[in-house]
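Lecture notes, continued. The same structure-token format from the folding unit now serves as the input rather than the output. Read the line below as a description of shape only.
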């Protein structure tokens, strides 16, 4: 009998690409996928995935009951960190409340291990590079939600014996990313802008430092997070090993695209320098940076140019308009 893996957010970047990797490399596993298609696309999902278009908060338990997954990868989230102060209720419902539903069912149906993707946002302000032992002091509701999920998972382990591995990926990019969302995924935003004859927008002076992570480098380590004994009950940073400024990342992409112009907008509430240590992912998950930023962007740009003309996602109403940045303001209806 086939073993079973459940992936939430299976139509997004992480979920769709991990599903591809498992199907190609672990044929003994059946892949079940959940996604409400609010941020991903059905075309991303491998045809061998048993797919459920569902809201995790509504019908999650019936899927657990039917398929009884061995491992669960919980990738579903709305990772618009900068937007989260203006959509607080949506942020907590889709990140914190949805994760509580996943945790409940992992406990109830005896899942062998839950792999949860947290975020570098849990570190907030501090002195980078952030190690897994660095203080956790998020500065926005998205980071707070992810930290709340982490704490709840720890409690589920202590009280109910739930095995887990918490992964803190950072700035993951690549083929099958949603480049039509104007609020997240800066590299994808720039590609969309260039494809539509727009300038590449940068918030503030562009000297913010980040480390970008190409999705293909992360796929096997994600699998190891579920299956390696040494990953049990661990918190692990995963991703890029070389930080760069936003200006430098834009320059690399402009070179890859053969054109593009940077334009600077008002700064926003964000951490200036946010990049992690990576050694733990190498020791425990066998992480290797086989593809660097330029090669990864080249691959993604070739893919982006072949994509259909999808309508760009724009919030028509925020929960809170007060203090919203000029570049996100919407017209009153």
């Amino acid at each position: 009998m086939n073993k079973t893996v459940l992936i939430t957010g299976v139509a997004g970047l992480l979920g769709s690409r991990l599903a591809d990797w498992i199907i190609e490399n672990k044929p003994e596993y059946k892949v079940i996928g959940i996604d409400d298609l609010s941020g991903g696309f059905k075309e991303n999902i491998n045809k061998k995935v048993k797919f459920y278009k569902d809201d995790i908060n509504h019908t999650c338990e019936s899927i657990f009951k039917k398929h009884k997954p061995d491992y669960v990868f919980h990738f579903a989230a709305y990772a618009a960190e900068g937007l989260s102060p203006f959509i607080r209720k949506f942020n907590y419902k889709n990140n914190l409340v949805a994760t509580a539903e996943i945790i409940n069912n992992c406990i109830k149906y005896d899942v062998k291990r839950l792999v949860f993707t947290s975020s570098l946002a849990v570190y907030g302000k501090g002195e980078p590079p952030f190690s897994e032992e660095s203080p956790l002091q998020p500065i926005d509701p998205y980071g707070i939600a992810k930290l709340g999920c982490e704490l709840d998972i720890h409690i589920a382990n202590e009280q109910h014996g739930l095995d887990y591995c918490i992964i803190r990926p950072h700035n993951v990019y690549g083929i099958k990313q949603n480049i039509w969302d104007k609020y997240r995924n800066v590299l994808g935003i720039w590609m969309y802008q260039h494809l539509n004859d727009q300038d590449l927008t940068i918030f503030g002076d562009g000297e913010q430092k980040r480390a970008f992570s190409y999705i293909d480098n992360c796929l096997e380590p994600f699998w190891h997070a579920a299956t390696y004994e040494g990953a049990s009950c661990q918190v692990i940073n995963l991703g890029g090993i070389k930080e760069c400024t936003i200006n430098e990342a834009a320059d690399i992409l402009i070179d890859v695209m053969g054109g593009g112009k940077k334009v600077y907008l008002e700064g926003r509430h964000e951490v200036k320098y946010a990049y992690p240590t990576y050694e733990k992912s190498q020791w425990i998950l066998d992480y290797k940076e086989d593809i660097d930023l330029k090669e990864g962007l080249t691959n993604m740009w070739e893919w982006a140019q072949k994509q259909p003309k999808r309508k760009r996602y724009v919030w028509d109403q925020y929960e809170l308009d007060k203090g919203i940045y000029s570049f996100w303001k919407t017209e009153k209806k």
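Point for the exam: The mean pLDDT is 95.
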